[in-house]
Design brief:
The protein has helices at 20-41, 48-73, 78-101, 107-153, 158-167. By secondary structure, it is mainly α. Helix 1 packs antiparallel against helix 4 (107-153) and helix 2 (48-73) runs parallel beside helix 4 (107-153).
Length: 171
């Protein structure tokens, strides 16, 4: 297959993770990939480099966001996830460097990101990001509800009772 045979890839609801910011970033990566694929089919070679760099930056933003989310969860395997990201970024940078030097037509970068994206969504993120973030958010929500129940059932302090009496109008 070559660049002329590239077809835009549509987002499928099965890719959704139920984490809004992650899904939005995955859609952004897919959009950048589709735009890059369209540019590969065009005769304008000058657009390929900037499109490749934009695609790489979009992936880097996604990775930074995942790192931030994982740091909030204290996920015990976050270093494994970071290693996976670093490994992919090394492959991505190598492919981009070859493209920018003129050593290839840019299709290998397209293939690399396309293959990685769906593997990343279906396996890496589902296990190493989505599950820990969902568990963390559910635990935080449960703690918030428990605190609200505890506050609702506690006896008012003396100052709260005096304040309540002071707020009543006496005729």
């Amino acid at each position: 297959m070559n660049a002329l045979n590239i077809s835009p890839i549509a987002w499928d609801p099965s890719y959704d993770s139920e984490i809004k910011e992650i899904d939005e970033q995955h859609r952004n990566v897919l959009k950048a990939l589709n735009e890059y694929g369209e540019i590969l089919k065009s005769p304008s070679i000058q657009q390929i480099g900037p499109a490749a760099e934009f695609l790489v930056k979009t992936i880097m933003v996604h990775f930074k966001s995942e790192e931030c989310l994982l740091s909030q969860t204290n996920y015990k395997h976050s270093s494994l996830h970071a290693t996976s990201q670093q490994s992919f970024m090394a492959r991505l940078n190598k492919s981009t460097d070859k493209l920018l030097r003129g050593d290839n037509d840019g299709y290998d970068l397209y293939q690399l990101v396309r293959d990685w994206l769906f593997s990343h969504i279906r396996s890496d993120d589902s296990v190493m990001v989505i599950k820990p973030v969902q568990e963390f958010r559910l635990a935080a929500l449960a703690a918030k509800k428990a605190a609200a129940r505890k506050k609702k059932h506690r006896k008012p302090t003396l100052s709260e009772r005096l304040l309540a009496i002071g707020n009543k109008k006496i005729f």
